[in-house]
Structures are given as structure tokens and as C-alpha cells.
């Protein structure tokens, strides 16, 4: 088949997030399908912007990445989640809309997938699918507009939210197939008009070849941070991923301040970037958190090496109602595949850590609960933590590898 994958934020290992579109597309190409990835060259989640012949992309540009045909459209630069991001979204969608006749004619897709975080790409994808007489698939990462309403406090009457709601309703009405990463969305989607016969759950996962063979060495500054913590006799807690408000990292820093005050031999090494990175780093310095080291993002290929060096992996969430529909975090899949014992600070419709028995779950946005959880896990023997990690690894290998997920996704599209 020819699969057209429309995802504003699609990335690749050399570029940074988002990774899911790349991993699914790579598996599909290995199965003999052709995939064209339509994405914006400017994104707040990528570590590196794609370039054409060493220059920024200023016009629609094709790039082959591991057999996937990426079609990049330029977009204005922006910071944060304000008006600049909205302008970036509309610039991207407007360009793809104008190019849709050419894309449909030249690529001739059999399947068109609308997969950007926001739902407004459904209108462009629907236009492309109708031109090509292709099947229309709507892939849900987060529930918009509920996510910006419940996470960011936006008014349901805000014009942007009204637009998102129109797009979500249109997607449920017009898509031939709806694929959700979140497992507990049935009641919500039905309330917005979705025929649940269209719905298929395909969660996030990992790709096995990134965890086999000779893995890239860990960047020296990160390796040194872990080494220094061990030299002080500390149990090393690791965090690898975005540093944004949804990750509730203030709670983690509050817990580390408690542990430092109590003299607990526990150290935290954080690698990543994001909107909150500078503010969190200022907290570490101002509050004198000697048991915390914050370092810039490392390439995804080095994540296994980092996780192999730590004792406990941490992931946390805000306490917000939106998580009643479930969670599907990429970094948790990495933690589990690495065989890490995990401290999970969450209240959600599902909990992979509890399902796999690979760690401890505590209440979200509670520094007391996180501190106590870290103390309890640090008190375990290395053998006990290793057994937790083995259970997590087995769980991921059984249910969350991309060869398995890619076939499930294709079965949903062709069923």
C-alpha cells in the first residue's frame, strides 16, 4: 500500500521527537509498503531541525530517512504554546492544503493518516483522502480539546478550543478508522459521536534493534554525573525526557529537597530539555540542591546506555482529570525495556508499571509520596530492583514492540 502519514511534529532518531510516526513507518516500509511522511520543518519538540543541503528548509522539500519519504513544509519559528505556535500550525496546514492535489496525484495514497497532536489536520487529511479515494484514519495522541482545557485551563468558549472541538467531532464522523494510543477513551469518543466499531487501540512502544548489538557510549558529562553520585555512595535516580509542566518535575525537586534535608543518600540525574528546563535549573541552583544534576538532552541512541547506569527510573504526572482516559508515555516504554525499576507518580485510567509489576506507584503531585517512594525503592536490594526490571522488560517485549504495533495498526486500516 501507499501510506500517507500526516504528522506536524514527526521526527526521527537524528532529529528528535516525535518518534512514533518514524517507528511505525519504518516497520511498514520493511513490510513492503511505501510511506510518505508529511511534516513541518519547524517544531518545538525536535532537538534538531531538518535541513536541505546544509540550509534551513524554505520550501517543500523531500528527504529520504531510512526508506521513508519525508516531505517537509517550512513553518515560522515560535516559542511556547502561545500565538506563535498557532501561527505555525496554520502555516503548515495551509501549505499542505494547497499542495494536496499534487500530493494525491503524485503519491496516490491508499491510506491517509491524520496524526498531529492537534485535530485540525483532519480537514487536510480528509481532502487528501477524498482526492485519492483513500481510506481516512484519525490517530489520537491526546484528547483535544480536552487536554488544553484540563491541562492548561483554557476556556471551552475560547475560539481555538471551539475550533478544536469542531475538528474532533468531524474526525469521529468522517474517519473510516480511529486509532487511539490511550486505552480508556471509549465513553468519551462515543459521547462525541464516534461509532465505536471504528475504534482500535494501538499504544506506544519500543523498537528492538535500538536495544541490541553494540550500543553508543553515554556522553561523558552524563556518565561523569552518575559516577560522581555513586562515588558519594548514593542510589542514583534517573529521569530522561521532556521537562514541561505535564511532567510534574517540581514535585520531584521538592522530594529531592526533602531527601537532602533528611540526609538520604539518593541522587537525581536528569537529562532532557523543554519549556521548563531553565526555570527548573534555576530552582536547583537557588535552593542548593546538591543531590540533583540537570544536563542537556542526549541523543535517543544513548538512552539505553543512560538507563543501564541508574538504579531507579522516575516518571511523574500532574493530578488532572484528563488522565482518566489513560496514559501512553514513550519514556516509560524505554524505562521498562531497559530493565529499570520504576517509580511512577500517577493517578490514571491505566498504570503499566502496576500491570507489569516493575516498580512502585505513588500519588501524583505529592512530594511526600515521591520522597517516601524513592526511600522505599532505595532500600530494596539490587537483586530485588533487578527482578522488577526484568518483569517490565518482559511486559514490553510481549505487548509493546513496534513490529507488533505496526501490524496491529495496519490490520485496523485494512480490516
Q: Which percent bin holds the helix content? A: 40-55%
| Spatial order of strands in the largest sheet | 5-6-2-1-7-8-9-10
Which shape, going by the Cα principal axes?
Answer: globular
Q: What's the CATH architecture name of the largest domain?
A: 3-Layer(aba) Sandwich
Q: How many β-strand runs?
A: 16
Strand content: 15-25%
Protein name: Glycosyltransferase involved in cell wall biosynthesis
Domain Glycosyl transferase family: 234-393
GO molecular function: glycosyltransferase activity
Pfam family, one: Glycos_transf_1
Description of the structure:
By secondary structure, the chain is α/β, with parallel strands linked by helices. It has two domains: about 1-205 and about 400-415, 3-Layer(aba) Sandwich (Rossmann fold); about 210-400, 3-Layer(aba) Sandwich (Rossmann fold), CATH 3.40.50. It is about 45% helix and about 20% strand. The protein is built from 15 helices and 16 strands. It has helices at about 20-30, 85-105, 120-130, 145-150, 160-175, 185-190, 220-230, 250-260, 275-285, 305-310, 330-335, 350-355, 365-380, 380-400, 400-415, and strands at about 1-5, 35-40, 50, 55, 60-65, 70-75, 110-115, 135-140, 175-180, 200, 235-240, 265-270, 290-295, 310-315, 340-345, 360. It has an eight-stranded mixed sheet, sandwiched between helices. Strands 13-12-11-14-15-16 form a six-stranded parallel sheet, with helices on both faces. Strands 3-4 form a two-stranded antiparallel sheet. Helix 3 (about 120-130) packs parallel to helix 5 (about 160-175), helix 8 packs across helix 13 (about 365-380) and helix 11 (about 330-335) packs across helix 14 (about 380-400). The model has no long low-confidence stretch (mean pLDDT about 95).
